[in-house]
Amino acid sequence: MDKPEYYLVSLSGGKDSTAMLLRMLEEGMQIDCILFCDTGLEFPEMYMHLNQLEQDIGREITRVRSNHSFEYLMFDKPISRKGKSLFTQKYGVNYTGYGWAGPGVRWCTTQLKSVPKEVFLRSLRKEYTVIEYVGLAADELYRLERKNNQNPNHRHPLVGWGMTEQDCLQYCYDRGYTWGGLYEHFKRVSCWCCPLQSLNELRQLYRFYPDLWQTLKEWDKRNWRKFRADYSVEELEIRFQFEEECVRFGKPIKGRAFYAELKNRLRAWREIDNE
């Protein structure tokens, strides 16, 4: 006997999934659940956006979270590591916690989003065939090639509507959703502490969100893994401060002379830090 279908909107809170939800509601499409996976690492403006959205549409947004906090997972969770002897040789001690995520080890996505979501969906699948609406924009068709976006029970209405990322942002702006200006600084507004952000996005975080930047520095000092392969958070701060100094004096913030002086400043900082 076939199970009844259950229509779920996967809401990240960003421009694409918000535009998808709003248009689905405007077109009277069936929605049984609006699901948001809360990492605990969203920008404060994102939580304000979700509260505003929930109030405006008159529908509850179901919020699921991991049983463990990001800080526990990064610093304290006991980890059974492959190649334990090599790890100990490299870092000097078998540290607990996952440390900062990296391109090949995106544990935070798994632990803070995928696992809580799967736990929630598992119970639903016992009674229903869950049809999940995913906010994939029409100019992101390359993402459809990824295995996780080829689920036969996934639907991508933005693609069918021909709505690009820019279309989605404007669609939301036209309806009064601004995210407190987040999209004026960032192309994507996912976890504010992500090491995989571009250098420019980290520069925006440093300039416009000093409280979050301070927390980022504190976490980096406690971490056994370097924030990025090229820079620690404090090294990024030295670079950004040097860039601001160059701009004030009309000097370029790239080129051989810039990087030579930056290298000198970073070397001097490391010598002081190691004293």
Structure at a glance:
The protein has about 280 residues and is of the alpha/beta class. Helices cover about 50% and strands about 10% of the residues.
Terminal CA distance reads 72 Å
Main sheet: strands, sense, barrel: 5 strands, parallel
The share of residues in helices is 40-55%
Q: H/E order of the elements?
A: EHEHEHHHEEHHHHHH
Main structural class: alpha/beta
Work out the helix count. 11
Percentage of β-strand residues: 5-15%
Strand order, sheet with most strands = 3-2-1-4-5
User: Taking Cα atoms only, what radius of gyration do you get, to the nearest Å?
Assistant: 22 Å
- Average residue-wise pLDDT: 92
Overall number of strands: 5
Shape verdict: globular
Low-confidence stretches at least 5 residues in length (pLDDT < 50)? none
What does it look like?
The chain is of the alpha/beta class. Helix content is 48%, strand content 8%. The chain contains 11 helices and 5 strands. The chain has helices spanning 15-26, 44-57, 70-76, 84-91, 107-125, 157-161, 165-174, 199-208, 210-222, 233-248, 256-273; strands at residues 5-10, 33-37, 62-64, 129-134, 154-155. It has a 5-stranded parallel β-sheet. The longest helix is centred in the middle third of the chain and has 19 residues, at 107-125. It is globular. The relative contact order is 0.13. The model has no long low-confidence stretch (mean pLDDT 92).
Secondary-structure blueprint:
Layout: E1 5-10, H1 15-26, E2 33-37, H2 44-57, E3 62-64, H3 70-76, H4 84-91, H5 107-125, E4 129-134, E5 154-155, H6 157-161, H7 165-174, H8 199-208, H9 210-222, H10 233-248, H11 256-273
Parallel strand pairs: 1-2, 1-4, 2-3, 4-5
